[in-house]
Amino acid sequence: MTTDYGREIRGVLLLSLFVMVVPLIFFPNDFGLRVDMPFSLLSAFELGWYILIFFIVFSKASAPLVIFLALLTMLYRFCLGIGFGLFLVVMFSLNLSFSMKSGIHQYLPAFLLQVILSPFILKSAFETLMKRSERRETESEARKRLSPEKPLTFFETSTSQSGRNHMKVKTSAEEKNKIMSADLESALNYLREYSGVKGAILVDNEGLVVAGDRSSDLDPETFASFGVSLKEANDILMRRINEEGLKRMAIHTPNLWISLNQILGFTLVVVADHNTDELLSVRISQTTGMIKKYLKQRYHQKILKGVED
Predict the structure, then answer these.
(1) Residue 171 clears pLDDT 50, i.e. is over it
(2) Which of 73-77, 79-83, 176-180 has the lowest mean pLDDT?
């Protein structure tokens, strides 16, 4: 993302220099363009132009955001005018006050060029900032949803006649499946929205799909069965070298990148295009951590132990 910002800044600077220099070629010829209008009214029309453009370009943006972007663009345009005025001082040895007024609004060819091009010069930079902001909001929302408001208990207790020191926890297949929730769906959606990911599926140790987010052409049952079968086969092999089992496995085929991740007795199966960038591993690690934290905080440890068993 830092690279994106650097590229956007360089692009804006180069285009800004172009917009400031081009009118110098024609100065002081104004091509008969003269408008006897107060500066305040001219600025109002300028702001209206920016708002109109951004409402069209950023159709999904809210009105306050569009107005904010328009004000930023107007500030940027004033900077262009000041820059043009400084060029006039240096190249034509003109009075500073006259040069500033000419650069900001009095020399109409420069003014029109700046006003027309400014929103389009900043468009790409604004898009980058908005995407970064949306990504942060999505990540924050996913983490909030994974923070339980109050713990849920999917177990029953029975008390012996001698006291209340013993608790019997009953875990059934139905209770295991209750682990699927909107919060898990949010975490998997956070992973699924990464470019190239076809599906993210959380599977229990019996091969049942607990939660998932996938594309329409991906069969979750097939990959759930595949993930559990592969895990069981590898567990047998790992025991031969005195290892408990695999925590994570990545499989690369000519078409797919399949990642298997163990989370408290569950298996997170991630299916992506084979050419998905390696940063997907970071997103998988983040999602795994969120799911693990959610399960630990929201469910009784004995239930999770029962799922593992």
Answers:
(1) no
(2) 176-180
CA pair distance 130, 172, nearest whole angstrom? 46
Of 37-46, 177-186, 202-211, 293-302, minimum mean pLDDT range: 177-186
- Cα 144 from Cα 272, distance rounded (Å): 26
Percent helix, percent strand, percent coil in the chain, to nearest 5: 60, 10, 30
- Return the amino acid letter for 81: G
Alpha-carbon gap, residue 153 to 93, rounded angstroms: 80
Rounded to an integer, what distance in angstroms lies between the CA atom of residue 190 and that of residue 195?
Answer: 11
- DSSP notation for 73-112: HHHHHHHHHHHHHHHHHHHH---HHHHHHIIIIISHHHHH
Q: Please say whether the beta carbons of 147 and 292 come within 8 A.
A: no
DSSP category for residue 247 = S
Domain segments of the chain as ranges? 2-144, 156-308
Residue 239: pLDDT over 50:
yes
Specify burial of residue 82 (Cβ count, 10 A radius: 0-12, 13-18, 19+). Answer: middle
Q: Nearest 5°: phi and psi at 115?
A: -65, -40
Q: What is the pLDDT of residues 32-52, one digit of tens each?
A: 777 677 888 889 999 999 999
What is 156-308's CATH number?
3.30.450.30
pLDDT value for 139: 53
CB 46 within 8 A of CB 115: yes
